[in-house]
Write a structure and sequence with these properties.
39% helix; alpha/beta; Rossmann fold
């Protein structure tokens, strides 16, 4: 039975990804930082999967907590096939680079870039031994083009660096049956992160060429496909899920 480790798999986009893997028959280790009340609610919501589901508390900005997540995943399920790096801190306040506190910058880089390195360093030997593995990272629209992003300097710098890291892992680990890909969600906000596609079909979104908002299910379906055994031809890719926004020339009438 395949096993997935999903960081922040208890809420938002991560919740839909966790549901997708559970519905596909996988065992899942869900990492969460502090929301124990939410986890208790999910244990009840997902009680039919309780034998295949394990929650591990931990802050992905801390090296020792990452080690604990991986150790507990192996202790409970004995393998790690999928590493879904869903968690990543984000500062909602609009701040220019000069206004960032040192601690804010460090947290953003640590949570969005360093954490992936630390997880990969622990998980890659396991995947090599299995001769199979799928690593998924998250970016943002056009991250592979290294754009500037006003008021989001730390987040964008980390994610652009993560593009290169993801591609490098793909190259280095291909011989071991391991793939690495980045998924870049469009502007999926609020409750839409935990919605299903059919529930938003009738909601009009004039910002996207397809005319509807994105959902957590959109992202979960992409990740599920990339993790399939026969999806190994796709590696080192950055896949945008923005409803067509990413192909629009914003400088053109």
């Amino acid at each position: 039975m395949r096993h997935a480790v999903i960081t922040a798999g208890h809420k938002g986009l991560g919740k839909k990804v966790t549901e997708e893997f559970l519905q596909n028959g996988c065992t899942v280790t869900v990492n969460y930082r502090s929301d124990s009340e939410r986890v208790e609610q999910l244990k009840e919501e997902w009680k039919q999967y309780k034998e295949r589901l394990h929650f591990v508390q931990g802050d992905i900005t801390k090296k020792e907590d990452i080690l604990q997540v991986v150790d507990q995943a192996m202790e409970h399920f004995g393998r790690i096939d999928y590493l879904i790096n869903n968690a990543g801190p984000y500062i909602a306040a609009r701040k220019k680079l000069a206004d960032y506190e040192e601690s804010e910058w460090d947290k953003m880089i640590s949570g969005n870039l360093n954490a992936v390195f630390r997880f990969a360093k622990l998980v890659l030997p396991i995947m090599r031994n299995q001769q199979f593995g799928r690593i998924i990272t998250y970016g943002f629209q056009d991250a592979e083009q290294a754009p500037g992003w006003m008021y989001r300097s730390a987040f964008s710098a980390a994610k652009v660096g993560l593009v290169s890291l993801t591609k490098t892992i793909a190259i280095e680990e291909a011989e071991h049956g391991i793939t690495a890909n980045m998924v870049s969600p469009g502007d999926i906000i609020g409750e839409m992160k935990e919605k299903e596609i059919q529930l938003v079909r009738d909601i009009h979104d004039g910002k996207t060429p397809i005319g509807r908002p994105g959902t957590g299910e959109d992202i979960a379906r992409i990740i599920s496909f990339l993790c399939q055994e026969d999806s190994d031809l796709i590696t080192g890719s950055v896949i945008s899920a923005s409803g067509g926004v990413h192909v629009v020339n914003k400088y053109r009438d």
